[in-house]
Amino acid sequence: MGSIGWLWERHRFLMYQCFSLPFAFLFYFLTKRGHLSLTYRYLFVSIGGSVLAVVTMGVYSILLFTPTLAFFLLVRSVDPSCIHTWAFGIQMLWQTFWHLLIQYREYYLHEPVSIRLFLAVSTLMLLTQRITSVSLDLQEKRVVPTCGASSKRKACIMLLPLVSYILNFTTLLGGPLCSYGRFVSLMEGIDLSSPPSPLGVVFLKLIQVLMLEWVRFCLVYFLKHYTCDTKSGIFYGILWLWGLGLVLRIQYYSHWRISECLSNAAGFGFWENSSGVSSSEWNGLSDGDFWTTEASIRMSEFTRRWNATTASWLRRLVYARCKHFPLFASFGFSLWWHGLHLGHFVGFFTWAATVKADHHIHRNLFQKLTPTQRKIYTFLSWINAQMIVICIVIAVEFRNMTGLRLLSKTYIGLVPLVNIILLFVLKLSSLE
């Protein structure tokens, strides 16, 4: 019981996802055998999501059901040309209220916040992604609204896929953002011939999760027994903070991979590409791979690869629609979406500035280097990206002054500052 309790407390989110795996396999098995019609498939994933929300969040599941109902009513009553504005405004106001309530209880009342509330707000953020994504589809006429149905019963049946998309149990607690159109095609595409059994793929990805967690366990052991001490030297302090940053990032990689497992177990993430060759790796739905993301030699590369579906969502929601300073607007909205903590302000604006600096530095320096110099530049650029990512992750994850104090103990905080100074120098030199 001791080991089970430790697993539950340390890996609560992962355990919730693992407990959902049998139901995902059950959905796949029943659908492949022809026991679930399309309507019953939508009912299965939506009811499964509702039950999962109640079991994991208790009374705080109302945080999810309220905006889902509100969006359902919007689709039924608001013109598609302005539905995104309404959906975006209502959803962000609702989410911001709960973020600020958590801050009020933490920093003003100094009260412990229920883990169920944290889980509900985290899930609400994912719900915001799906609601705003489908509201954009409706506004851009990628999805045809069902308001003109001949009867209320028929309209409700036609809106069932929408509710299933929002409350899908495979992506409720975490997972790659899938467009509404692709979700519908995936639900319709599970038949006797496609997709093949995901059992082997899910098993391999679970092994990857175990390996990531083992690495994280070893790093945590090192960090606990060797504290960050400036007396031990600058290099030691940087190495300690690098380990801490990696521990925090591995949590995300594990969560993304287990979310992929859950989607794959239900038969999602496998389809044929344009050349007709099947995606045998089941990688159609993914938020990022550890090796690919950590091998990024530039901040702009890391930004595109980190939480890839969320990055695509931000590009569509903010970057592509913003006429002035789209990069800073995207990171500013991400700051709002994450909760407006002090660490978020420092982390996200540092991230935006260093991505901007990366574009200018690479464009001005890389073409002037010899092949040998480019190899050295690539290595130094990777180290530079790693140092910046450490600063951002620690500032964002700790949320308050604790992370900023950790960064101030070493000189690692100077790395993003040097990048920002170089940005201004290059800007000024281009004006001359």
From TrEMBL:
Transmembrane region(s): 12-30, 42-75, 82-101, 162-183, 203-222, 234-252, 335-355, 376-398, 410-428
Q: Which GO terms describe its molecular function?
A: serine O-acyltransferase activity
The UniProt record lists the keyword Nucleus:
no
* Iron-sulfur is among the record's keywords: no
Q: Which GO terms describe its cellular component?
A: endoplasmic reticulum membrane
**How does the UniProt record describe the way this protein sits in the membrane?**
Multi-pass membrane protein
Could you tell me what this protein is called? Membrane bound O-acyltransferase domain containing 4
